[in-house]
Queue: 2 jobs
Job 1
Amino acid sequence: MALEQEGVQLSEAQIAVHWKEEEYYFPPAKFIAQANMADPSVFERFSEQNFPECFREYAELLTWDKYWHTTLDSSKPPFWRWFVGGKLNACYNCVDRHLQKYRNKAAFIWVPEPEEEDTKVITYQELYIRVNEFAALLQDVCGLKAGDRITLHMPMVPELPVAMLACARLGVIHSVVFGGFSGQACGERMVDSGSHILVTIDAYSRNGELLDHKLKADQAVEYVEKNGVKVDKVLVWRRYPGKYSSPTPMVDGRDVFVDELLKNYRGASVAPVSMPAEAPLFLMYTSGTTARPKGCQHSTGGYLSYVAGTSKYYQDIHPEDTYWCFADIGWITGHSYIVYGPLALAATSVMYEGVPLYPDPGRPWRIAERLNVNIFHTAPTTIRMLRKAGPDEPSKYNYHFKHMTTVGEPIEPEVWRWYYHVVGKGEAVIVDTWWQTENGGFLGSTLPALHPMKPGSCGPGVLGVYPVIYDELGNEIPKGSGRAGNICIRNPWPGIMQTVWGQPERFVQIYYAKYCRNPQSTDWRDWPYFAGDGAVQAADGYFRILGRVDDVINVAGHRLGTKELESAALTVEEVAEAAAVPVMDELRGRAVEMYIALKPGYSPSQEIEDKVRGAIETIIGKIARPKNVWIVPDMPKTRSGKIMRRVVAGISNFMSPGDITTLANPEIVETIRTQVQAAKLSRGELPRQLSPQELEEIGRYGQVG
Ligand code: PRX
């Protein structure tokens, strides 16, 4: 078959990546004239000589109850402590302090998915009232106090940021679980964080359907209690207050309707608790190389300073702007750039409940037109989807963006150009912001009034962040060499997570062990942060991110661990072995394919394929649903019995499976290839030309075992 592609022997991060250098695009004069940061002296202020004190500039955007005495304490690396001695409250900074000037300005504008339902405006005053009332309820009904954990499993409704800010007011650590995750996934995170309270909602609208969400709360509690942890209360908001929209019954004594209880707290006020800068503000779980998700613990002072600073300089948010980050609060992007960053700057932040294409691909542009949105922020997946379904839609609507963001995945230059010319109408700057759940805020981006844009590249390190690319041995790969390697950050920054909740040794191991020069050293220069992404740096210093170098698949901007997927598949009785691999997907960037070998005595069937899909959906959630499940006679294995994911990943992507001479069973490769590729062709999944970075990514998928 002439279906395979050449050049696949690229398993090392050191390969040379060849692509055309893209041309620069320059920010419009109109943007520069109004930008929050257009003064090039900022680069000097944030230069390495001025580190770490440069970050005072971000911290001073906040209101502190007590000023800090030490900007960075690096005495116990890599457990950095920022703004030590300082005290503040995150909710006060996002709400109370804006009342004097902006009391009746919109804090959130919420757009429900059904277009016939009215948009809701929540002013800073209204937000203040709601947050206080809910904080009083949390204190009273749940007995929560500073340092306790609580889990919020909610979709994109305004009650979610209300609940988050109420927690922040009390110093309670919130752990928001993405609404699309399954009940069991929520339960696992509750157990890990030690939460005894779950906040949920009865239902929400998605793609025109009112989904039952309360069911997931019951499944979560069942999982938690099976694991020996008691759930004290399930607080259930109602999508339509006063009307229960879920078929799942309430459980007496455990489940309560928030809208009913709130009646007892009308006008209640709760003083914001003054928290040390180092107190954790929230946990956000993410996937890595093991089956167990890790709880990234973010601080109050460092995190809030960092998201306020980056929202101001990189998102260019002014209080007069209408800013729409079209992401989900259940991910870090939403925490940092829908809630905490914009609110710290008194912005008007738009929240949309639904999916991009509902009821048609003009929807986002109608929202932008109606609300006069001027800053728009989303992920390449959404951009690709809108480009495919409605390439000419933006021109039909009268909106004007000054600024747009892309985040979460590499963006193809041709998709970038559509975003720029069609969505942005050639009037808006674009920032391509590279960062991760662990980082709190941006790591790589252009500073929009001061740097030109280059499609497909995020730009240089952001202010005060000094990236470097290392090869496997820790040698620096020089810029302009065309060679890829592991992108690392040489220094700590205020938004970096503090630790993995309950597992400090994993924090050190995952992010710092690889390139630490001396584990005894207390000099931050000896502790580069390993991001887990491959990258190349062009001669102009701009980074192009190639994707994960660990066992993580980035599906539509969501991180899924291959081990998590494989362990879910292994819960199916008939399954003996499982391997999860990424397959290039036109819309979602990557999709998941599962390879399954059965236990003796079982033969392949549609039923087993469905069980694997079902198990993944139940244990992780619908977002992880594999595109294909291939039940194969055997897995390609090394002589020591490890499954070679790279080989099946190659087959799934119509690439050469690479070197198979080290396999114990090389003959199986051709059998699998014929089976899988014939089935793909009959399903209309045709091979396509892969880019150099896609080839590189497939080539590096590791072994299972
Ligand atoms: O591989 C990088 C990719 O997304 C990963 C982080 O995923 P998550 O923790 O879910 O956070 C997503 C939103 C911050 C990174 O390791 N990634 C993120 N932003 C970009 C990106 N890849 C290329 N370009 C980006 N702008």
Job 2
Amino acid sequence: MTTLRDAAADAGVHVGAAVDADSLRTDTDYRETLAREFDAVVAENAMKWGRLATGEGGYDFADADDIVEFAERHDMYVRGHTLVWHRMYPEWLRPWSRSEAEARRLLRTHVQTVAGRYRGRVDAWDVVNEAVADDGGLRETQWLEALGPDYVAEAFEWADAVSDADLFYNDYGADGRSEKADEVYELVSDFVARGVPIDGVGLQLHVFDEQVPPADVAANVDRLTDLGLKVHVTELDVGIGAAVDDRAEQADYYRDVVSAAVDAGADTVVTWGVDDGQSWLPVASGGGENPLLFDEQFRPKPARDAVVDALSR
Ligand code: XIL
């Protein structure tokens, strides 16, 4: 049987999954499925600041290290997620009343500690995650308030100084044609024009309320690659409920959207989890059931075969 991993190798792309460190340690089926079917990983949570932090300025890299070591043993590509985000930061960062200089020092130290530690081991970093607002402009975050709008570009400079990974901007709702997709395009075009060290854009592609038309994803990938940037589909999941009615329709959508993205030049596709038993989507979306390529018993679903198909053409 052709695995996803075989099909991806033939297509010259990576196919990955978001990984949970506990499941990796404790669940043999999880480990076997991951190593057999995927050639790329990203930590679902283990590299987020709030998960790495132990007290003020301290770090515990045990979970993140386990994921990276697993990837190395199985010859997998590693996406790092994520250095700068407005969620899942450590509690000790509160309150946000620090001076601008102190806030900048804290964020720069964090970015460089984590990106520096994994230099040569993480292949691509989501340097900044979800910095664009849903209604235009930059999202009002702690970092925007403390550091001003240039913090996004600064984060790329800081990461670039210590890392040899490809540096990505990652966001949701910017996958196909939308105002937010245009906003992200403007942001990264400006970076390219100004020489900010950005290498790629991550399209999360969480699909649950409505389908993002595959042709729109292709058009977006096209214009981003025209800027000289790489494009990764970083958090793909397709919930059954509103966007698709059943497993067959889910498989069709997976096939169409993966082939559209890859044909347009996306070179990595990562699903946000391995199996339906451990997906964030049903809770997060209030619906959107069973969104992944393997069921809760790790049996391949039609969607998995559809992605093999999409990569085999
Ligand atoms: C989610 C994880 O899947 C959950 O386990 C966690 O509770 C919250 O974060 N966009 C992102 C990811 O960039 O980091 C989020 O991951 C999902 C949305």
